[in-house]
Amino acid sequence: MSTAVTRPASGATDLDTLKGVGPAMRERLERLGLQAAEDLLFHLPLRYQDRTRVTPIAGLRAGHEAVVEGEVTAADVIQGRRRSLLVRLRDGSGILSLRFFHFSQAQTTQFARGTRLRLFGEARSGSTGLEMYHPEYRLLKDDTGKEVEETLTPVYPTTEGLAQPRLRALIRQAFEHLDQGSLALEELIPESLRSRFRLPALRESLDYLHFPPPDAPLETLAEGHHPAQRRLALEELLAHQLSLYRIRLRIQEDAAPALPASGGLATRFLTQLPFSLTGAQRRVLSEISADITQTIPMLRLVQGDVGSGKTVVAAMAMLQAVSGGYQAALMAPTELLAEQHYKSLKRWFEPLGIEVAWLSGKLKGKARLDAKTRISEGHARVVAGTHALFQEDVHFHRLGLAVIDEQHRFGVHQRLALRQKGEVSGTTPHQLIMTATPIPRTLAMSAYADLDVSVIDELPPGRTPVKTIAVSDERRGEVTERIRNACLEGRQVYWVCTLIEESEALTCQAAEVTRDTLTEALPEFQVGLVHGRMKAQEKAEVMNAFRDGEVDLLVATTVIEVGVDVPNASLMIIENPERLGLAQLHQLRGRVGRGTVESFCVLLYHPPLSDTSRERLAVLRDSSDGFRIAERDLELRGPGEVLGTRQTGLVGMKIADLTRDRDLLDPVRGLTRAMLDQTPESVDPLIRRWLGEAAGQYGQV
Ligand code: ADP
Ligand code: MG
């Protein structure tokens, strides 16, 4: 992957120190994410061409690129369906045709009989046998052939207006500057660590990849398994890990309040719950509880499948903060979810005499002012809300613990912003991050290098897994009947419309049409609609009506993905599920199956399905284990998709591929520690090399 990354300005050599780089060229290079001369060294080939030897015509194979040398025997302009210039070329072994659809008058005379040519192109089978279309060619004037290339020829990712030969020359120039010492390339992984992990040196790796010898294993290179590639992939992974790790260190430089386990209050809380905690909930809780008795700020991620009961775990942690004399805040990504949390927390905490406040963007005027005062004066010990909680004008009296629900909607920046909220009491709050996105463990370790991870790997007893079936949308009629039956039994139903061509507007329109069709087909039932373009107020009204059972069938876009809890809903239809990731589908499906009746999820796909789509839907049908599903999703789609683009630190990897290079993750973790201990001065340059200036700034917030 070669996504453009913002590149360093400081300490780097300007692009225009290279000959031939003016404003226009600079602009093109920048389009490739190349901002300094050093960056050219790290712009790696996509693949290679073998121009190191001449292949006899008889040795050519269709679909393969090769250098050929021969003598022109004929050149004719053919007036076929498309006018073309057909040149016949002969060497000692056979005859090859060259075809030019675009050609000049000069070319027709250039290919006189007897002219010797050296050319490079891809052979294909055509009407005259083996042919090459528009090969690169050169006339051989003397009868001695010019020398062939000494190394394989790299083919680089490039951009309009920048042809391969030009880019190759610029890169070669950068290496010359390196040899002359006007460009520096620092080896940032010390020899001791390199030899422990058997890694080639940086310069050696780059030389190899830009100018591989003729006998280089092309297949290994194409698969990305060559030691030179692995060395760079490892360095890149290391840079990402270090940048996340550094955020952790920065946060943990400050002191957090020590919050002793809450004893009596916890017992009272637990006895009022209508259920007892699962073993997994208790285990995770003891991990959190131990963390927050320390003065080192906790940075812990709790992963738990939909419905695994994360909220109550968070509540127990919040209770520990409150009994230690501090405040606790819970932030959720949507108004709806925040409000749901607010209600749960109120229900649990008010009987214990703990005041719970609510703050969201929706809250205006006096109500907002009141809430802010209750928070800043410390009357409200527990606060639930949206992002609004962490806006500048909100001051906490003594914030001891911040809980962030559904982490995948937030990034590193919000985590850092939290650090400031302890300002008044001079401490940094502990952070607990909860996510239902079941990120495979290997990936979680890298994506969240700055967090400790706890997993709630058990669902509360008595849940029946949602039965999932895939149905072609040609059978819509049957599905409508199914909805009617469920509603007749007093159950409620979700109908989910997925994103159309990345367009929210189109998706919302489609949802409106679906609502109308279903209203017509099911006149005896109440059909509601929520989508992203409705006002928060309207959305909340519809959702509340659904929760209260006034709406039987809720047509929705994926806005309902997160957290909604309506136990009476027992059927979900997901239209065009092939458009969504497995993890997201699993999340959606988790909205049903929350009550005691058997629940169903119908994946209403549009045929024909591709093999991958078919396989993906089968995974969902056969498994209800979020982690297993995520592992499969990772294999089928790759990590970028699984984590979503919001996950900082993982998107935009240039060389590393988390699926292919999974086995490097363990050594990278070892190296991360080793570098921080042994060569801390190399950490900054390494991060800057791979993540650019932007990443350097994370650490300074
Ligand atoms: P999620 O992990 O998806 O956020 P919630 O915290 O919303 O899950 O919990 C889902 C439902 O399960 C809630 O109604 C909650 O009260 C209930 N619940 C949580 N823990 C248990 C338990 N140990 N036994 C039974 N029900 C539980
Ligand atoms: Mg939840």
From TrEMBL:
Keywords noted in UniProt: ATP-binding, DNA damage, DNA recombination, DNA repair, DNA-binding, Helicase, Hydrolase, Isomerase, Nucleotide-binding
Reaction(s) the record says it catalyses: ATP + H2O = ADP + phosphate + H(+); Couples ATP hydrolysis with the unwinding of duplex DNA by translocating in the 3'-5' direction
Residues annotated as domain Helicase ATP-binding: 291-456
Keyword Isomerase: yes
Keyword Cell division: no
Coiled-coil stretches: none
Helicase C-terminal domain residues: 489-635
SUPFAM superfamilies: Nucleic acid-binding proteins (SSF50249), P-loop containing nucleoside triphosphate hydrolases (SSF52540)
GO biological process: DNA recombination; DNA repair
Pfam families per record: DEAD, Helicase_C, RecG_dom3_C, RecG_wedge
Assigned EC number: 5.6.2.4
GO molecular function: 3'-5' DNA helicase activity; ATP binding; ATP hydrolysis activity; DNA binding
Role, per record: Plays a critical role in recombination and DNA repair. Helps process Holliday junction intermediates to mature products by catalyzing branch migration. Has replication fork regression activity, unwinds stalled or blocked replication forks to make a HJ that can be resolved. Has a DNA unwinding activity characteristic of a DNA helicase with 3'-5' polarity.
Family recorded in the similarity comment: Belongs to the helicase family. RecG subfamily.
Protein name in UniProt: ATP-dependent DNA helicase RecG
